[in-house]
Write a structure and sequence with these properties.
The complex is a heterodimer of chains A (about 110) and B (about 110). With about 110 residues, chain A is an all-beta fold. Chain A contains no helices and eleven strands. The radius of gyration of chain A is 13 Å and the shape is globular. The termini of chain A are far apart. Chain B is mostly beta strands and about 110 residues long. In chain B, a hairpin with a 6-residue loop joins strand 4 (about 30-35) and strand 5 (about 45-50). Classes of the chains: A mainly beta (about 110), B mainly beta (about 110).
Chain lengths: ~110, ~110
């Protein structure tokens, strides 16, 4: 069975400080990993996916198959980064559903 | 707003009553998903449609839950004989063909069962 673990429910950092949101997964196959974000009073939306190897809003995430992790990182946090972040997994490319972690609420302190 | 639309935004009902929610996906999206989210948890997959065909259902979806997408456009989720444990945010999402992982979510329907 697949499982996504986000060990931190809450994370606070100061503006300009580096931020890392942790995500670990368990799945016997080769999953696809994603980060979704929900800003205050907005809808849940895709932030980035590992297959794209992209940087969105300064965030990057590297899939580490050895450690089964997909941590989200940003070198300099901004106030507008404050949001709820969810790590998610699908069992294969184009699969029909996402399995989400419990989320981490990031607060960037001015 | 051309995004995913859900109605109603809030629903309060008494235990034992039936409720129905509606989701209108983005028009060119042929895939439609229902998720449920409770406090402190991430969204949990319930069911998935490709056009009008319901292709996958989670074990979370008990016999009291039924979803339809009769013409491959909007979808309804009905809960019969509601229980207090059904209280949750019900999220709908849609995606393009071949873009299954990039889901566009609606604002959700918050259900409270008293």
């Amino acid at each position: 069975a697949q499982r996504v673990t986000q060990p931190e429910k809450l994370l606070s950092v100061f503006k300009g400080a580096p931020v890392e949101l942790k995500c670990n997964y368990s799945y016997s196959g080769s999953p696809e990993l994603f980060w979704y974000v929900q800003y205050s009073r907005q809808r849940l939306q895709l932030l980035l996916r590992h297959i794209s190897r992209e940087s969105i809003k300064g965030f990057t995430a590297d899939l580490n198959k050895g450690e089964t992790s997909f941590h989200l990182k940003k070198p300099f946090a901004q106030e507008e980064d404050s949001a709820m972040y969810y790590c998610a997994l699908t069992r294969q490319t184009g699969a029909n559903n996402l399995f989400f972690g419990t989320g981490t609420r990031l607060t960037v302190i001015p | 707003d051309t995004g995913v639309s859900q109605d109603p935004r809030h629903k309060i009902t008494k235990r034992g009553q039936n409720v129905t929610f509606r989701c209108d996906p983005i028009s060119e999206h042929n895939r439609l998903y229902w998720y449920r989210q409770t406090l402190g948890q991430g969204p949990e997959f319930l069911t998935y449609f490709q056009n009008e065909a319901q292709l996958e259902k989670s074990r979370l979806l008990s016999d009291r839950f039924s979803a339809e997408r009769p013409k491959g456009s909007f979808s309804t989720l009905e809960i019969q004989r509601t229980e207090q444990g059904d209280s949750a945010m019900y999220l709908c999402a849609s995606s393009l063909p071949g873009g299954g992982e990039k889901l566009f979510f609606g604002s959700g329907t918050q259900l409270s069962v008293l």
